[in-house]
Structure formats: C-alpha cells, structure tokens
Write a structure and sequence with these properties.
This protein is an all-alpha fold and 151 residues long. The protein has one domain: Four Helix Bundle (Hemerythrin (Met), subunit A) (Up-down Bundle). It is 76% helix and 0% strand. It has five helices and no strands. Helix 1 packs antiparallel against helix 3, helix 1 runs parallel beside helix 4 and helix 3 packs antiparallel against helix 4. The longest helix is centred in the first third of the chain and has 31 residues. 17% of the residues are buried.
Length: 151
C-alpha cells in the first residue's frame, strides 16, 4: 500500500474535511446548549424532563436563537456534505497543491465566517461568506468536470 498521507493534497483533504465534519457535528451540541439556555425544547417530554411548563405559544421563528441555530445546522447539511464529496472528486483530478489548498482552506474559512455571522445576525457578511463559498464549490465542480471529460 502506498503512503497516501505523504501527498500534500491528501493531507490537506484530510485536514479540511475533518475540520468541516467536526464543525457539522458540533452544531448538534450548540443547538442543545442554546435550547437549554433559552428553555426551548423540541418535544413535550423534553419540557417535562427539564421541569419546564410548555409554552402557550411557540417562540417566534425569526428571532428565536434555537431556530437560528437549527437554520445554521440545516445550512451546513445542505452545503458542507456536498462539499465533502466534491473535495474528494476534485482531489482525484490531481490539481496543483497551491490551487487545491487555497480552495479547501478558503472554503473552511468562509464556513467559519458564515457561521459566526449567522449566529450573531451580521449582514451583509453572512451572505458574502455564503456566496464566496458557493463560488469555490462551483469552481471545483467545473474543474473536476473539465478534467473528467477531457481525459
């Protein structure tokens, strides 16, 4: 078996994708912490377990911190999971390390910025981070397609 970890692109892929997965996993814990701090639970049995009365009216979905954290998590599922697949496919095209590392680390940085801006309600930086992340994904998809169809 060859030593894949010796390849710079493979190391970058492992580093960035692992950090993205850890970030995605952490969203569950973050939402749970927000639920606890806001005393907003998912089900009636959760209210009973925490000895908190059910609210007469559901909290506002616009300003509710729990709803906000759930939207961040949903956005990660919709964007990070496809990126994980795309990053592996792009790595298979054996791109130059400078380009590969720039795109992957750039995407990770933009996802962190997106999450921070979304959790604090900061616009237009949230939208800018999202859009630039999508530009990276589209670029990787196009480069991967070009390599696949030109071989």
């Amino acid at each position: 078996m060859t030593n894949l970890i010796a390849d710079a692109n493979v190391r970058t892929l492992l580093q960035v994708d692992t950090l993205l997965v850890m970030g995605l996993m952490s969203m569950t814990g973050y939402t749970s912490l927000v639920r606890k701090s806001q005393k907003v639970y998912a089900t009636p049995e959760d209210y009973a377990l925490n000895r908190v009365a059910l609210p007469a009216v559901a909290p506002s979905q616009v300003d509710d911190p729990v709803a906000r954290s759930r939207r961040i998590h949903q956005n990660h599922l919709e964007n990070v999971v496809p990126f994980l697949v795309l990053s592996v496919l792009f790595a298979l095209t054996e791109p130059g390390h400078g380009l590969f590392a720039s795109l992957l680390w750039g995407y990770l940085a933009l996802r962190v910025l997106y999450t921070l801006c979304y959790s604090r309600g900061i616009q237009p930086y949230r939208s800018l981070a999202f859009t630039l992340g999508m530009v990276i994904q589209v670029t990787m998809a196009l480069l991967t397609s070009l390599a696949a169809f030109s071989a």
